[in-house]
Amino acid sequence: MNKNELIPALEQIEKDKGIPKEEILKMIEQALVSAYRKHAGQQFNVQAAIDPQTGTIRAYVVKTIVDTVLNTAVEITAAEANRTKIGVIEGGEFKIPVEAEDFARIAAQTAKQVLIQKIRETERESLYTEYKPKEGILINGTVQRFANRNLIVDMGRNEGVIPVREQVRREHWMVGDRVRALILKVEKGPRGPEVILSRAHPDFVKRLFEQEVPEIYEKTVEVMDVVREAGFRSKVVVRSHNPKVDPIGACVGVKGSRVRPIINELQGERVDLVAYSLEASTYIANALAPVKPLSVRIVSVEEKRAEVLVANDQLPLAIGKAGQNVRLANRLTGWNIDVRSESQKKEESQATTAARIDELSQLDGVGPKTADVLQKGGWGDIERLAKAKPDDLTALSGVGEKTAEKIIDAAKVYLEKKAASTSVPPPATPAESVPAPVEPSAAAAPSDEPGQPPAAAPEAAEQKDA
């Protein structure tokens, strides 16, 4: 290339590839040095410089001025240097111009290879810089090919891959299909940035709502959480920061105009919208959407257990196919939710009542009728009954003061017997066994063996026989 054409060519590369002209000039200078050393020898100290304005190339072999030359490749005497340049000083450097044409071909090939490598590295770095900030956003692409069940997507300047774990099993794609996916992760690879895409991640649903619902984009409505079983069902928790805006209504739109495109993009996956609430019972009830529970009872705050009562015909819908609805509600709220129908609750209540009446009937002086009265009066628990006062029971129908005292005493005795039967003392070891005590007798004689009871005297035995 003519030196007059070099600078315009570098400026064009800078414009197209984004590589600064000065950086390319340094690369060419390094290529010139490397080429001369291949041509003349690696021991030479070579310097090259290119004028950034004119493109003129200059190369020099640099030698140190010494008194006695030991290595002619890097050293020169002052006398020899003075033949070319007057006034050189020992210990300084002496530059000998080199004609670049002698190694221009090698230098050009080296410069070309280095430049191509640099352009590739720059493009890879540029792509990584471009896609790394896009993690978590949606992109559109085209299915290009399949590689080991992974989906390769053409995104324009780069390729992305949807691994099997990030695909939805119910979805089927063909080469050339348009596909929308979430940029899950961008990593540096040996051949450029590796862009991992996903259609199964919960954030994919979240980003779809952000695109379709202006209130979410404007931060008036916030998507708090998304739980999902990809391809089957998703639950999206929404919250409004404006009391005049209904978060669920804003996401659904007029006649479902906003949520319908999302469902279509998810290829028929069911989407439940859940209103966020700080109150646990309300949040649990909302999480079971589309079912509206009759009641929610917090069983244990520490264990995060709750019991939900629904209508008989709503039980299959509340549980969902293969327990899907209640399972997603558990993940969404962090509570262990036990769903029961009215009939199940009634049967359990009847069974519990019958068991308590049966247990009360075992008390001394308490018959089935009295047990029924106690149960209906709220005294079905024997432990609570044992702590009661006679005045507490006299308010019940047919229970007098003396009867109340007998019932309370019977409850205490029952609990004592129950505690004694459950607490069995451990068996004694041989070393801990103690002989039964023997009543002292005048005819008793000390035993010869320690730890054994004394033997009876012969006279006493004879008197007993007589």
In short:
The protein is α/β, with parallel strands linked by helices. The chain is 40% helix and 22% strand. The longest helix has 28 residues, at 104-131.
Which CATH C-level class of the domain at 3-127 is it? Alpha Beta
Envelope shape: elongated
Classified in CATH, the superfamily of the domain at 3-127 is NusA, N-terminal domain
The first-to-last residue Cα distance is 146 Å
Q: How does this model look, in words?
A:
The chain has helices spanning 3-17, 21-40, 78-82, 104-131, 202-212, 214-217, 247-252, 259-265, 280-287, 315-319, 324-333, 342-360, 368-376, 382-386, 390-394, 401-422, 458-465; strands spanning 46-50, 57-66, 75-77, 93-98, 138-147, 150-154, 159-162, 178-189, 192-198, 221-229, 233-240, 270-275, 295-300, 305-310, 336-341. By secondary structure, it is α/β, with parallel strands linked by helices. Among the domains are: 3-127, N Utilization Substance Protein A, Chain:P, domain 4 (2-Layer Sandwich), CATH 3.30.1480; 135-198, OB fold (Dihydrolipoamide Acetyltransferase, E2P) (Beta Barrel); 361-421, DNA polymerase, domain 1 (Orthogonal Bundle). It has a 5-stranded mixed barrel with strand order 5-6-7-9-8. Strands 1, 2, 3 and 4 form a 4-stranded mixed sheet that branches. A 3-stranded mixed sheet has the order 10-11-12, with helices on both faces. It is elongated and about 140 Å long.
